[in-house]
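Q: Joint fold for the lines below.
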Amino acid sequence: MKFTWFNLMPWPYLPDDFREKNRSVWVDIDSRLFDPVKAHEVYNTYLDLLEYASTLGFDGIGCNEHHQCGYGLMPSPNLIAASLARRTKDVALVVLGNSIALYNPPTRVAEEFAMLDCMSGGRLVAGFPVGTSMDTNYCYGQIPALTREKYAEAHDLIIKAWTEPDSFAWNGRYTKLGHVNLWPRPVQKPHPPIHIPGGGSVETYDFCIDHTYSYSYLSFSGYIRGKALMDGYWRRVAERNAPDDSPHRAGFAQTICVADTDAEAERLYSKHVSYFYNRCLHVFPGFADAPGYRTIKTIQTGALSQYAPPKGWGEISWKELTEGGYIIAGSPETVRQRMEDLIKSLRVGNVFCLFHVGDMPKEKCMYSSRLFAEKVMPKLRGLFPDYADDGRFWCHPIPQVAPGSLPRDAMVAAE
Amino acid sequence: MSVELKTIQTPHVPVRIFEGGSGQPLLFLHGAGGVMADDPFLAALATKYHVFAPLLPGYGDSEEAPELREMLDIALHYLDLADALGLKDPILAGHSMGGMIAAEMAALDNHRFSRLALIAPAGLWLDDHPIPDIFSLVPYEYPPLLFHNVEAGAALFTAGANFDDPEWLKGFLITNARQLGMAGKILFPVPDRGLSQRLYRVRAKTLLIWGDDDKLIAPVYGQAWKKVLLGAELAVIPQAGHMVIWEKTAETMAALSRLA
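A: Joint structure:
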C-alpha cells in the first residue's frame, strides 16, 4: 500500500455568503477575494504541512494543478514540488500532475519533471491528467473536441523525449520541433512512474492499461459513489487482458478526518468539511463539461461530472457525508474500518489522503494526520501481500545527498 | 414546401443534407444550433429556392468527422460538397457559424460564388463587444441570448419540453456534445479564426442580415463586416434577435430577395 498525503491548497478565506454572491469557485471566481498578503502565509503553511507529513511515515506527499480555482492554489504544481524536493527526503513527490495538453511545446513538462527527478534523487511520481474541463478548456482555451488528441500527442512526445538518447525531429499535428534533445534527463529509467488521474472516461482506462500506468480517480464524492467507476475500470482491465490485476494499477483520493472519538471528529472538523463542500465545490454547472470534451461513449456510460451534483453539495449533512463515504471521519478504529473497506472494495494500492480540508487550521490538520499515521496506517499496510513487491507504479530513489552541504569554512579557506 | 433528408458522399464522411423546393439553387449553412427537418426558415427557403442545407458532420444524425479539425478543413469540406452536388454558382447563405464558414468559402474559392448572404455571421471579434461564450451556458440561458421574444423563443428552443425534464436534458447533453463539440473547432474559445484578413478576396455581391436585438453577436458587428467587405449591403430587421431567421422569417426572406 502506498499512502500519499495530498494537499489541494484551498483558499481558506472565502466569505460565508460565497455561494449566494458568486456563481462559481472556478474559472470566473471574483479575483478580489484573493489577498496576496494572506497568500504568503497560506502558501507557507501549506508547504509546512506537506513537509510535516513527510516526517510521519507517509509514502508520498502530493500536489496537483488547477487554474483560476478557489480550492487550488497550485497553477504550477512543479513550483511546489521543487520547493519540497529541497526540504524533504525519502518521501515520494507525487505530482498529479501536469496537464500536458496545455503546454507548448510539451517538452517543457518533460524538462521540468526531469529537473524534479534529478533534484529529488529519483523521488518523482509523475501524473499526466487530461485536466478538468474548467482548467483545460475554460481557463486555458483548449478546443474541447481536440483536447484528447493533443493530449495523446503530448504524451508520446514526452515519453520519447525521456527515453530516446539521440536528438530527434518531431512532426506532430500540434507540436513541431526540429531538435528534441532533452537536457536534463530523469534519474528513473526508463522514466518516472506515471499515474493518470481520470474521471470515468473509458478511453483513459484503456490508455492506462495499455501503457502500464496507474489509474487514479480523484473524487470528492467518496469511495461508495466511486465504486461504480472503479468497478468499470477493473472490468476493463479484465476485458483488455492485462497481464495482472495488481491493485497498484489504481488509486483513489479520499478526504479523511481522524480524532480520538467519532464525536470529537464531528466537533473538530465538520465546519471545515462544510466549508469545502459548500464553498470550494461551488462550481457553475456550465463549466463542468465543455461540449466535445468528453466522448459520446463516456457520456452514454453515465459518467457525469462530480462538479455538478444532482441536488447541490450544500444540503448534505455531516451524517450523510460520513455515512455516504464522501468523507471518512471518526476515531482511529472507525477510520481504519472504513479505509479497509475502501481499499478492498475499490481494489486500490494507492490512496491519496486529503487531510487538509477547506479552511482547516494547521493544528487540527497536523493532529488528524498524525493520528492516522500512528494508529491507522500501520494496520492497513499489509493489505494485498501478493503485490507488496510490485514496483512498477512507484518511484525508485537513489541515495540522497543532504541539501545545505556547502563547506562552512570555505570563506576562510579562500582567504 | 417540404424538404427531404438525403445522403451525399464526400471525400470525408457521407453528408446528410436537406433538399427541397425549386428555383435558383441556394446552399444554406446552418449555425451552431444546427437545423432540423421542421425548421421554419428551411421551409420558407424551399418556397422560393431550390435549397440545399447540409448538416455539418456530427450534427443531427450525421456521422462525425474527426479529421475535420479547423476552419480550412471545414470550408474545403463544404466546397467538396458543392462539387458533389454539381452546384456551380449557388446563392451561398449562412447563419451565425454557417455565415462564418460561407464567408471563408467565398474568400477561398472567390471566382465561384457571385451572391453571398450572411445572416448574423460569426467570425469577427471586437474587443469592445465581446461575444458571449455559448460553450459555458446551461440550457435555460440560451433563449435570452438568442431571441428577442424570450418566452416564444424558449418554446421553439426546447420544442415545448421542460428544461428540468431529465430525459430532455440527457438528450440535450449528448446532442450538445456532438454538435457544439464540432462547432468548438472553429468557435471555441473565441469565434475568430483570422477571417478578417482574408475577406478582401470576396468578390461576391454580399448581403448582411441582422436582427436589431441580437444579444449574441451585437448588430454593431454588421458595421464591422461592412468595413472589411466593401460594397456589402446591411439589412437590419427590427424586433429580432440572433435567431432572426425564426423570429422574422418573412422579413429575412424579403431581405434575401435583394440578392436574386
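Q: Anything notable?
A: Chain A has a mean pLDDT of 93. Chain A touches chain B at residues 27, 137-138, 141, 143-146, 149, 173, 284-287, 289-294, 296, 299-300 (CB under 8 Å).
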